[in-house]
Design a protein that fits this description.
Helix content: 55-70%
Largest sheet: 4 strands, antiparallel
Low-confidence stretches: none
Number of strands: 9
Oligomer: single chain
Radius of gyration: 24 Å
Structural class: alpha+beta
Order of helices and strands: HHHHHEEHHEHHHHEEHEEEEHHHH
């Protein structure tokens, strides 16, 4: 038996094993009645109310949760459930304006149950570990820590030699091709009713491209869509220092490899998935220099220590917020408990980075307005009792 034949036989065995596991996962999920049962919909409806119970629409939804869930469950099982139009509004978050399409809470209940019980269990096994966006137990801080670990690993092997490629996709959500998402449903979801329901979520978006921000199935679809690209870079090109947070990518390139060829391979593979990079935001940076990833600035020192500084604009926004909070608190429009919650969040963000001087400056600014230290919650509680 030749070497090529042995490789082919080994590949066929691995492929058959993957297919068997994929079918087993589909059988474990069950059909539409199991994945979107009354109990699953009810639990999803309860979770949809967390954090937004101050809204009148949410209060009405929760007041009729038992009967409303029964109606929607019957509609889903009978195949007559239809999604309403999304509520479109702009949202300015951390200095960037985004166009959000939010579903009604009744639709969000069904979408949450479908995402948790169908999409994520089927998609996650094919994702790389360094894909940390919108997944339980992971998140923004997880992605930053993964980059720090990859930089430490790279330093132990190559020192500061090599490059980091920083990549950002252009219009990641608005340009998502529906055909590619339908093909993923065809491959991962074997139950025809579950597949048809997933296709109806995509079909609720007008046109042939684009997925809405603010929709939970859309988040799951988009974090899993680049999985073939991720596995190609990790496995086929053997790039150990590779990861991303949604559409922000980093690739650590060893000194014996050409970063331009790797970037070209990345572009060709992403184009095949219908994803296109933003050339203005894509850079190749030597590891001896500072670079930005997810608005955090990284620097690999000569000793191998990784220094991470937070977003510089966050400090400016926090000082303006504290100044505005001062006038609200003194007028009685804001309580000291709310002031503690907001201030503690600002300080916690900066304390996650190597920004001790910024933390001190923010504390001094707070003291200059309120005349007490923001470090202890007891200081806030004392003044809260005096109001």
């Amino acid at each position: 038996m030749t070497s090529e034949q042995r490789h082919k036989n080994r590949y066929d065995r691995r492929r058959a094993k993957r297919e068997a596991k994929r079918r087993e996962r589909c059988e474990t999920i069950g059909g539409l009645e199991t994945a979107l049962s009354y109990n699953e919909l009810f639990k999803a409806g309860k979770k949809c109310c967390n954090g937004v119970r101050w809204k009148h629409s949410v209060q009405r939804f929760e007041a009729h949760l038992f009967s409303g869930t029964a109606i929607r469950h019957k509609q889903v099982i009978s195949g007559v459930f239809q999604f309403d139009k999304y509520v479109h509004f702009p949202l300015n978050e951390r200095g960037k304006t985004r166009q959000i399409d939010a579903p009604r809470i009744q639709d969000r209940q069904v979408q949450k149950a479908y995402t948790k019980n169908v999409l994520l269990p089927l998609y996650q096994p094919s994702m790389i570990w360094n894909n940390g966006a919108s997944l339980e137990g992971k998140g923004f801080e997880f992605s930053l820590n993964m980059l720090k670990n990859d930089l430490h690993r790279h330093f132990r092997k190559y020192g500061r030699e090599g490059y980091v490629i920083l990549i950002d996709f252009k219009q990641f959500f608005p340009s998502a091709p529906h055909d590619e998402l339908y093909r993923r449903h065809e491959y991962f979801i074997t139950d025809p009713r579950l597949k048809a329901f997933g296709d109806s979520i995509i079909a609720s978006v007008k046109g042939d491209v684009g997925m809405p921000l603010g929709v939970e199935p859309s988040q799951a679809e988009m974090i899993a869509l680049p999985s073939p690209l991720d596995n190609y870079m990790k496995c086929q090109l053997s790039l150990k220092g590779f990861g991303h947070y949604m559409d922000d990518y980093y690739i650590l390139v060893p000194p014996d490899r050409d970063p331009r060829k790797i970037l070209k391979a990345f572009i060709n593979k992403s184009n095949g998935l219908g994803l296109h990079i933003s050339h203005s935001k894509t850079k190749i940076v030597p590891l001896v220099k500072r670079f930005k990833y997810c608005k955090a600035k990284f620097y690999l020192t000569e000793t191998g220590k990784v220094i991470v500084n937070g977003n510089r604009d966050a400090m400016k926004r926090d000082k303006r917020k504290i100044t505005a909070f001062g006038s609200k608190v003194f007028c009685g429009e804001m309580s000291y408990e709310d002031l503690w919650t907001s201030t503690n969040g600002m300080l916690a963000y900066l304390e996650n980075y190597n920004d001790h001087n910024k933390v001190l400056k923010l504390r001094r600014h707070f003291y200059s307005i309120f005349k007490f230290s923001p470090e202890k919650i007891e200081n806030f509680r004392k003044r809260s009792t005096r109001q």
